[in-house]
């Protein structure tokens, strides 16, 4: 193994241990560019030097910064509009019928990055006040990146970020300009709670989520890690709930915990675990 390969292996192992993501050959090209800012800050000349520093005891802060830099936090509001159309017109009405008695919905945006997906969901509810009047809507956004969660909690977005995915009307209705940035309004932020969480850990609230959105997260896992992730997602979703994955993801051939839904692409429903039937009790003989 060449020195450069060994260095990438050390960095890849760090990423896998912290997040479960694999630093595949196809992703190596972005390592230098992703870490360029870190190199300047710490006076690091190349990947080999970084690998040597990571091997030293007590470099927890540097290791965390490396992982944060390597994570792909690409996202924007209403990413893949067709998916949100399916949510608004099919999934949420289905859940509204199922939860009519309790008037409460719990949604988990797993791998939420900097919060745009969770805020997009909140906007759907806010734009249908008649449909959701008297309902309690709880949206939990989680991500393995602490830096991304900090941004999500702030609800502050740049001019570039605010223009990606939403209309001018939505921008003016749900955001307010503040010192060159745009602040999400309380009427949508109040529905959402953000926390740092690794999808490979047990869900924050097992068995209670009516809808789980986990899009473009599993792409970076190997088959074994992906199976673990599906198991964790399954334990965090209601028996009659919904799972939505990204366009390049599927449960087919990956897990037996979910099955394709009858409507909507990338929608899946949990497979209820079957337990063996109890043996019938023998009746006592009468004499």
Description of the molecule:
The chain has 287 residues and is of the alpha/beta class. The chain folds into two domains: 3-70, no CATH class; 81-270, Vaccinia Virus protein VP39 (Rossmann fold, 3-Layer(aba) Sandwich), CATH 3.40.50. Helices cover 39% and strands 18% of the residues. The protein has a seven-stranded mixed sheet, with helices on both faces. Helix 12 (223-235) links the parallel strand 7 (209-214) and strand 8 (237-245). Helix 1 (3-19) packs across helix 4 (47-54) and helix 1 (3-19) crosses helix 5. It is globular, with a radius of gyration of 22 Å.
How does the SSE layout of this entry go?
Layout: H1 3-19, H2 31-34, H3 36-42, H4 47-54, H5 60-70, H6 81-98, E1 104-110, H7 116-126, E2 136-143, H8 146-154, E3 156-157, H9 159-162, H10 168-174, E4 175-178, E5 181-184, H11 186-189, E6 192-196, E7 209-214, H12 223-235, E8 237-245, E9 258-260, E10 267-270
Parallel strand pairs: 1-2, 1-7, 2-6, 7-8
Antiparallel strand pairs: 3-5, 4-5, 8-10, 9-10
Helix pairs in contact: 1-4, 1-5
How many domain units? 2
The profile of the biggest β sheet is: 7 strands, mixed
The topology string of helices and strands comes to HHHHHHEHEHEHHEEHEEHEEE
Structural class of the helices, strands and pairings? alpha/beta
The low-pLDDT segments are: 275-287
Our count of helices gives 12
Shape: globular
Spatial order of the strands in the main sheet?
Answer: 6-2-1-7-8-10-9
Organism: Qipengyuania mesophila
Domain CheR-type methyltransferase: 1-273
Keywords: Methyltransferase, Transferase
InterPro entries: Bact_Chemotaxis_MeTrfase, CheR_C, CheR_MeTrfase, SAM-dependent_MTases_sf
